[in-house]
Amino acid sequence: MRKLVFALPGDPETLTGGYIYDKRLIAGLRELGWDVELLRLPEVLGQPAAIPRAEQLLGGLPRGVPAIVDGLALGVLPGAAAAVAARGALVALVHHPLAEETGVAPAAAAALRESERAALAWAAVAIATSATTARSLTEAYGVPAARVSVARPGVDPAPLSDGTGSPVALLSVGTLTPRKGHAVLLGALERISATNWHLTLVGSDQRDTAEAKRIRRLAANSRHCARLCLAGEVDAGTLARLFHEADLFVLPSYHEGYGMAFAEALARGVPVVATCAGALPETVPPAAGRLVSPGDVGALAEELRRLIAEPQARAALRAGAVAARADLPSWRDTAASVSDLLESLA
């Protein structure tokens, strides 16, 4: 069997888009005949004390075996990147550049940008999850275009949503972190009291506990608190049910390297209200959603007001979302593209 090391930080069962991508990619590569060794690294982002252990683990990789290293670790490990590249082909997997995370202070963002640039310089190839992220790696991080490949996240087949209709069921799925823009969403909903809606917000409150407390406080103090359900993390069956009942998917992110939750909505024919940040214009076709500027509470409120009040407008977007399903890749497609890339390195 063809051998491969896949290194990622923290718990691979974490329910975020990046970890789900890694988990599904590993499973897909194994199905295609790769002997994948999972190397769990300590979480190093924002935890410099953990860096020596991560460097030690990566420095001990077998020679001649390619290694995919998740960007959540690689971006702060330029020294380890050099060591991995000296032993075999280093493949960087970049969900989105670390400096693009919302809420990072300018000085810290600059340091992350330089660290990630230095680490990526050692990569034989960088895998980006969208064409937008691929362009960013070339234009802002100096990775030659010939060494960047795109492997979009896959989507599992799913039945079309039935929706709810009255009240209009709004679904938002994303960890409670500043980048996801939940405060913007709650602010927009404060402005549309006359419309008939209910919001279910799904997402872990453990990735940024301070932001999670802020969002829960905003929801508790909202005049519409009875219409808000902050569900936290839910199991796969519950999430599937919530998607099936949803009329609109809404998440006003400040940046997305791809936006897997948005693709999950499209896979079920659920129209999207989001922002034009990062790769979202690439992920959400114009006929399937409405995109506003990041942080624009008024524009988001107006789009939601119109779509909630006008069933025909929602129906038009739903038709666009249903049509978009045909262009969504499967997880087998994702794994096959990465497998072909690894073969070419050999």
Order of adjacent strands in the largest pleated sheet: 2-1-3-4-5-6
| Beta-strand percentage range | 15-25%
Radius of gyration: 20 Å
Q: What is the ordering of alpha helices and beta strands? A: EHEHEHHEHEHEEHEHEHEHEHEHHH
Low-confidence stretches: none
Q: Characterize the main sheet.
A: 6 strands, parallel
The multimeric state of the shown protein is single chain
Shape: globular
What fraction, in percent, of the residue positions are helical? 40-55%
The CATH superfamily of the largest domain is Glycogen Phosphorylase B
CATH overall fold name of the largest domain: Rossmann fold
* Tally of domains: 2
Number of strands: 12
Broad structural category: alpha/beta
Total count of helical runs of at least 4 residues: 14
The N- to C-terminal Cα distance equals: 13 Å
**What is the residue-mean pLDDT, rounded to a whole number?**
94
Instruction: Give the second-level CATH assignment, the architecture of the largest domain.
Output: 3-Layer(aba) Sandwich
CATH class of the largest domain: Alpha Beta
Please describe the structure with a list of short key phrases separated by commas or semicolons.
Rossmann fold; single chain; alpha/beta; 43% helix; 346 residues; 14 helices; six-stranded parallel beta sheet
Topology record:
Elements: E1 2-9, H1 17-31, E2 34-41, H2 51-59, E3 67-70, H3 71-74, H4 78-87, E4 90-94, H5 106-120, E5 125-128, H6 131-141, E6 148-150, E7 168-173, H7 182-190, E8 197-202, H8 209-221, E9 228-232, H9 236-245, E10 248-250, H10 260-267, E11 272-275, H11 280-283, E12 289-292, H12 297-309, H13 311-324, H14 331-345
Helix pairs in contact: 1-14, 2-4, 4-5, 7-12, 12-13
